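EI: anyone free to look at a 299-residue chain?
SC: sure, send it
EI:
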Amino acid sequence: MTNPLDFQAWAAAGQSRIEAVLQKLLPAPEIAPQRLHQAMRYAVLGGGKRVRPLLAFAAGELSQADPERAALAGAAVEIIHAYSLVHDDLPCMDDDVLRRGKPTCHVEFDEPTALLVGDALQSLAFQVITEFKLCDDAAVQLEMAKLLAIASGSRGMAGGQAIDLAAVGKVLTVPELEFMHVHKTGAIIRAAALLGLKCGAPVSAGEYAYVDTFAKLIGLAFQVVDDVLDVDASSATLGKTAGKDAEQGKPTYVSAMGLSRAKAFAEELRLEAMKSLDSFGERALRLRQLADFIVLRKF
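SC: here you go
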């Protein structure tokens, strides 16, 4: 039996569960069009830390959500995340050749296929969020689909990417960086936690707001740490090309405030996120452990 305090075992079990769910949700590689389905599976399966589904599981524990429902919600978010990575890596975006320790999708297959992979994955995510019963109230499930749509679109991840592309070669202030990353990175992380929470019993407006605050803060911390690691870690450690931000002239928290201050800022965000969970007590253990993992990058 798993030690209830053992985060590593809990996370490994969650990652294994989400991998199995994704295996089932993705079209089989032998189904036509085979090359597209093979590329979709290549882009999604067998890589990544699955932080977003883990957030869905952890937040779902606060509302006593059925883990199977939380897994489907987490899978929908992870599929959106995977599509964003495929498109981010394209030559017209970040033009990268390494992702999760292997060739990027357009390198392994080709650019047109990679573009279609992103398109198809986005559609699949919304099929998942609407096809399966994720909560007992159909109106709430409709809200869940809307939440994911906003988090993925021009007021969320896609909008953040547009701001990021427009900012290349410019110097941004810290508030401008925060605005960009609340959309680009934070919106999907926030969606993961809130979707997991909505899979269970209704919570009070106050509890929902606390989880929302936590997710916003930890999503921002995630990006700050990414910026630090881009400078401070190797490509082998990251599983993607290190030093890419500086090479492309992208404004980052490191370029805006320096490496040591960026590290300190990530820690400040982690502590602030922790405070937002005070009213939950031990029920929020997994969210706290995830905050530590995201900022300290440790298992």
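EI: Residues 95 and 211 are 35 Å apart (CA to CA).
SC: 👍
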